[in-house]
Amino acid sequence: MKNFLLVFKAPFGGLGAVILLILLNACTPSSTPKKQAINKDSLVLRKNSPAWVREKPISSIYYTGIGYSAKQINDYQQVAKQKALEDLSSEIKVSVSATSLLYQMDSKTNTVNGVNSSFKESYEASTKVKSQTDFENFELVGTHEDETGGYWLYYRLSKAEYKNQQEKKRNDAQKIALNFYEKAQSDQQNDKIISALDNYISALMAIEKYWNDANEVQYQGKNIMLGTSIYNNIQDILDNIRLQTPQTTIIIQKNLPKIVFEILYKNKKLENLPIKALFTEGRGELTRNYVSNAQGNITLDLQKLRSHVKNHQILVETDLTNISPTNAQNAVFALFLSRLRIPNTTIILEKEKQIAYIISKEKNLNISLENAPLSRFMKELLTKRGISITENPEKATFWLEISTNTEANGISNDIYNTLLSLSVRGIEPSSKNEFFSHNKPNLKGFQIKNFTASGLDAHKRAEEYLEEEILPKILEEIQ
User: Are 230 and 318 in contact (CB under 8 A)?
Assistant: First the structure.
């Protein structure tokens, strides 16, 4: 029910203005008023709240962070602290040096989760949580609990002290990185390529939080930009690695091939380089990770193809995460890898055109069936799956022999019952060896006419079994 308050002011009257108050009830259905949710913005306007709750302090001396949490939730104090640190962190702006690794990486395009993004945005998103745990000596200025069940928390951090902290941490990180860099340089000069890559990556990740800085350091009497120098050396090594194989397109015939790769660095055999392989088209079974042997070779061992597409495609590439496994789960490292030219090659597997020759030995009550219904049905099934049928056994890549026979199984309520025995064999033409065999007895047939008609009904009913049970197994064997 809605209430209206109307106020009328009379233009006359002995005692002065007369105010008439009329309370009207609107003719609307009665309902229980909805309880409004607490608005956080309205809370900060409460007069009994501290000034820092009503309005966030702005300071030239401090970074400030205000956090809020409802007390009804678990760990509300920790939640408020986290939000306060996030708020504080948002005030710290990252400046990017034009000679920094971040600037160099940001000049390239990037895709994160299918959305175009700059490297800088992706990098800052990946390091945001880490930067919040990097704060030291931030001060708790105050807390406040309001009557609505809210908990407020106020932190601040001296800008000067934060700058000094960061400079010290950056200098310490640069010393660690420079130590790895020196080892990597020595390894690269002595063709210890895997060790060089490992040390370069360790040097790079030591200054992970400072990729936005120039990271100018002294090395062998010269000033170098450490981040960009590490990147350029890693890329130089990768550009000199080659994955070679005699054939990049392979026709698959009877057996799945073993594909041998030769791994070279500047035309020298490269040992212990980790490689990963995965299907980019089609599906199959193979060992995903490999390491080059003392001769610089890797053998890609295909176990099985799992899809019926004509062509399969396998991407084979250098696996830097296995060179530096401690960084494999690091989002910033993964982001860096997305900017590198990784040595790789693609193998295309083309299936040999399959041609079937069907041998029919179908009988009904020991009498051969001239129309061979199951053999005809099998030809239709194979043709739909891209397999050709030939009448010349010499042109076939495989033979299928389909054998049937039926026997009478009695009469019940004028229904003639028969039982069909089905056998399907796959034969390899050149060796005449059997590569597939499946037997199914006692497939039932029913007819009111006679046993002959009942036997034909059994053959018809066997089509479903042929398609659903036998055909998939045949396809798996031949493909």
Answer: no
SS3 of residue 424 by DSSP: strand
What sections of 207-313 are H helices per DSSP?
226-239
| CATH 2.60.40.10 correct for 241-351 | yes
One fold for 241-351 and 355-478 = no
Indicate the pTM of the whole model.
0.65
Contact 311, 351 (CB under 8 A): yes
Fold classification of 355-478 is Double Stranded RNA Binding Domain (3.30.160)
* Type of residue numbered 458: A
Ranges assigned E (strand) in 186-296: 216-219, 222-225, 241-244, 249-252, 258-265, 268-269, 274-281, 284-286, 289-291
- Encoding tokens for residue 434? 């059997």
Domain residue ranges of the chain, discontinuous segments joined by +: 241-351, 355-478
Compute mean pLDDT per 10 residues along the chain, 479 residues long, and list them.
Answer: 40 37 37 40 61 92 95 94 91 84 75 53 71 75 91 95 91 96 97 96 94 93 95 97 90 77 94 92 80 92 72 90 89 90 91 89 96 96 92 94 96 95 94 94 94 96 95 86
Q: Which two tokens stand for residue 331?
A: 């989002």
